[in-house]
Amino acid sequence: xxxxxxxxxxxxxxxxxxxxxxxxxxxxxxxxxxxxxxxxxxxxxxxxxxxxxxxxxxxxxxxxxxxxxxxxxxxxxxxxxxxxxxxxxxxxxxxxxxxxxxxxxxxxxxxxxxxxxxxxxxxxxxxxxxxxxxxxxxxxxxxxxxxxxxxxxxxxxxxxxxxxxxxxxxxxxxxxxxxxxxxxxxxxxxxxxxxxxxxxxxxxxxxxxxxxxxxxxxxxxxxxxxxxxxxxxxxxxxxxxxxxxxxxxxxxxxxxxxxxxxxxxxxxxxxxxxxxxxxxxxxxxxxxxxxxxxxxxxxxxxxxxxxxxxxxxxxxxxxxxxxxxxxxxxxxxxxxxxxxxxxxxxxxxxxxxxxxxxxxxxxxxxxxxxxxxxxxxxxxxxxxxxxxxxxxxxxxx
Length: 397
What we know:
Elements: H1 3-10, H2 23-43, H3 45-60, H4 62-70, H5 75-107, H6 112-127, H7 133-139, H8 145-158, H9 163-178, H10 180-193, H11 195-233, H12 238-248, H13 255-271, H14 273-299, H15 307-327, H16 329-342, H17 359-373, H18 378-385
Helix pairs in contact: 2-3, 3-9, 3-11, 3-15, 4-5, 5-8, 5-9, 5-12, 10-11, 11-12, 11-14, 11-16, 12-13, 13-14, 15-16
């Protein structure tokens, strides 16, 4: 058979359909699957988000458990201590938030008259620019001072709705902490078949630890600095606004604004425009320095997401899962990146759009350091981890 005959034999006729799915069909099915998954998450966010938060807390607590095991404590003893520590941290956070909301609900009504007066003065001030009083009133008709002041009071009564999510969180924490040995065994089985998936999960775990630990530490620092500044300026409810600053520090990009508005408004009510401007200036300086220059130096090596991706993930996940989605925006994005991008060598190009330019280089250096640290045990583990015919090839970074 000649070469031309073999080419003609393998070339499909114009009327024949190509085998396999076309790119259009794959795209449609993939988008449909993504839509179904996201719809399911949004419908069951009250269960999925607390469970994912519990996973984050267990991962962040792994260094404590390893430290306890190195100190000679049995594994089961370390797990119990880690679980108790997580329970105490969770109880402290919930108690702190409940206290802040309770105090605000009791104190804020005292400023309702001042807020109404400020509201009326604002309408009169806008009227001096040539806009009629009726136009301003109709435009601002949806802003009811009594409704705004009553919103915080109603929050205290709505805390019971979070009881279900808190229950899911506590149960998930318990099972995940005691399932850590099983997870380690499963990770060994996965490593023999999908080493790149294990590597991506390791990077995800490192990013989660860095994100939560550093965000918590810097949240405490920022909250303390804000409280001191508010006490100096004489702004009421300074401790409440400090708790708010700590909680909103977990929300990327816009968390600073959410923590700024209430103290600035109360500074305007009690001290006038000058105090409000001082609050804005102090908050901007503290948060700009800490969150824009200092904190990224500690979290950037492990997380490595670009500011644009961080902001878009905040908008996306908050629309899917509400407030918990906003708090878990970065961890959720890291999870998607680990499973869909880092675990697949063909998707490596897409990672350049998600991470900072030096993120992959730092990740490669960190992986090399981990491999060097584990080098003495290579001879023992070599027969187990030797590549087989079904093992995927891991490209060198």
